[in-house]
Amino acid sequence: MRLKAIVDLVDISMNYHSKEGETRAVAGVNLSVEAGEFVSVVGPSGCGKSTILSLIAGLISPTSGHVEVNGRVGYMFQRDQLFPWRTILDNVLLGLEIQKNKSAEAIAYAHEMLEKYGLGDFKNHRPREMSGGMRQRVALIRTLVTRPKILLLDEPFSALDYQTRLSVSDEVGGIIAEEGVTAILVTHDISEAIALSDRVVVLSKRPSRVVSVHKIDFEGECGTPTARRKQPQFPEYFDKIWKEMREDE
Ligand code: ADP
Ligand code: MG
C-alpha cells in the first residue's frame, strides 16, 4: 500500500503577470513527497524553483493545477534573515512570536534545541558575533521550534563559502534527520542535492518541467553528506544529472 503523500503537486503551472507582461515560471509540474523523505529540486537559476516552494508554502496560488500539503510548513532561506539587534535566543523565539505561540513549553523547547545543537553558550550573543554557518544553524532552529512537519529550504547554503557550505550542510542534514522532518531543498548545486537527498528532481530551464527524478541510494548507507560525497557512486549520479541539465540548455 502506498502511503499518503505529505506534499502532492498535481500538474501545477504558474504564470506571473506584471506591467512588462506575462512570465510563465512553471509548466505542469508533478511531485509527490512522502513523510520523512528528503527531496532536492535542482534546476538552473531562474527556472522557477523558488516559485515551486512558494506554491507549497501557500504564499501564492497556482495558475492551474492542485497543491496538497498535509502538515505545517517551515521555511528557510538563502540569507539567514536574523535580526541584528536581537540576541540569538530572541531571534529563535521570533517564529513563535509571529505564530502567537510563545508558551512556556515552546520557550523551554527553544532553549532545549539551542543546547542540543551546540548553541547554548550563544543565547545572549548577537548574530554579528557568529560565523555564517552558526547563523544558518540558528535560522534552522528558529524554524524547527515552530514544529513544522515539512521544511522548505531555498538555497540555504549558497551565501556561504565552499568550506563552510560543506560543514553546514552536514550539520543541517544531521539536524533534519534527527528531528525527522520532511525536507524539500531547492538548489542549483548538483553535488549538494546528491549529498543530502533520498531523491533528486531535475527541472528544465524556465518554464520548469520535471526532466527526471533520481533515487539516490548509496550501498551501506553512509551517514553524513560529506561521507556520501566520497562514495564511488557519487560521481556517477553527478555526471548523469549534469548531462541532463546541459542537454536542456
Ligand atoms: P529560481 O528560484 O529557480 O531562480 P524563481 O522561481 O525565483 O526562479 O523565478 C522564476 C521566474 O519567474 C523568473 O523568470 C522570475 O523573474 C519570475 N518571477 C518570480 N517571481 C515573480 C513575481 N513575483 N512577479 C513576476 N515574475 C516573477
Ligand atoms: Mg530562487
Describe the structure.
The protein has 249 residues and is of the alpha/beta class. The protein has eight helices and nine strands. The longest helix is centred in the last third of the chain and has 18 residues. It is globular. 38% of the residues are buried. Bound molecules: adenosine-5'-diphosphate and magnesium ion (MG).
Bound molecules: adenosine-5'-diphosphate, magnesium ion
Shape: globular
Alpha-beta classification: alpha/beta
The span between the termini is 39 Å
Q: Determine the fraction of residues in helical runs and give it as a percent range.
A: 25-40%
The main sheet comes to:
6 strands, mixed
Low-confidence stretches: none
Task: Count helical runs.
Answer: 8
Strand order of the largest sheet: 5-6-7-3-8-9
SSE succession: EEEHEEHHHEHEHEEHH
Percent of sequence in beta strands: 15-25%
On the 0 to 100 scale, the average pLDDT is: 93
- Calculate Rg over CA atoms: 18 Å
According to DSSP, the number of beta strands is 9
Quick structural gist:
This protein is an alpha/beta fold. The protein contains eight helices and nine strands.
Keyphrases for this structure?
binds adenosine-5'-diphosphate, binds magnesium ion, six-stranded mixed β-sheet, alpha/beta, single chain, three-stranded antiparallel β-sheet, 249 residues
SSE map:
Layout: E1 7-18, E2 21-33, E3 38-42, H1 49-57, E4 64-69, E5 73-76, H2 88-98, H3 104-116, H4 132-144, E6 150-154, H5 162-179, E7 182-187, H6 190-196, E8 199-203, E9 210-215, H7 225-229, H8 234-247
Parallel strand pairs: 3-7, 3-8, 5-6, 6-7
Antiparallel strand pairs: 1-2, 1-4, 8-9
Helix pairs in contact: 2-3, 2-4, 4-5, 6-8
The structure holds adenosine-5'-diphosphate and magnesium ion.
